[in-house]
Amino acid sequence: MPIATARPLEHPAREEIRLEAVLHALADPMRLQVVRFLATLGEGEAATCSAIDLAISKSTVTHHFRVLREAGVISQVYRGTAKMNALRRRDLDALFPGLLDTVLAADAAQRRRVR
Questions:
Q1: Could you report the per-residue pLDDT of 16-68, keeping only the tens digit for each?
Q2: What residue stretches are annotated with the HTH arsR-type domain (predicted)?
Q3: Residue 49 exposure: Cα atoms within 13 Å on the Cβ side
Q4: CA torsion sign, 99 to 100 to 105 to 111?
Q5: Does some domain include residue 6?
Q6: pTM of the model
Q7: Domain at 40, CATH number
Q8: Which runs of E-coded beta strand occur in 14-73?
Q9: Domain range spanning residue 91?
């Protein structure tokens, strides 16, 4: 019996990533939490969806990861049955220099302010 393989996930090429899609993806608090977590990982590291503690339903988690992937903010690949997620920092920094660091710094400042 042949082993089923996971279908590859579609990602925009670097030149297809649009600023408005990235900003839309980063505008949601849950998606920003995912990006914040992935930004703490080292270069080339990835995390499973379940490694990121989001207090929402699994179907909603799937939606948020899809929005991030389709916007070009993260990459996702299957490793066995797990979906691994990594921030596309190099692509984002090349296209929009300083954007990701600015958004993460503003997010950190806001979280300190509203505590």
A1: 999 999 999 999 999 999 999 999 998 889 999 889 888 888 889 999 999 99
A2: 11-107
A3: 24
A4: positive
A5: no
A6: 0.90
A7: 1.10.10.10
A8: 47-48
A9: 15-107
Q: Residue 109: count other Cβ atoms within 10 Å of its Cβ.
A: 10
CB 8 within 8 A of CB 69: no
Are 67 and 25 in contact by the 8 Å Cβ rule? The answer is yes
Cβ–Cβ under 8 Å, residues 88 and 44: no
Q: How far is CA 35 from the centre of its chain?
A: 5
Token reading at 28 = 């949601």
Share of the chain above pLDDT 70, in %: 94
Q: Which residue has the tokens 């993460």?
A: 104
Number of H helices and number of E strands within the chain?
5, 3
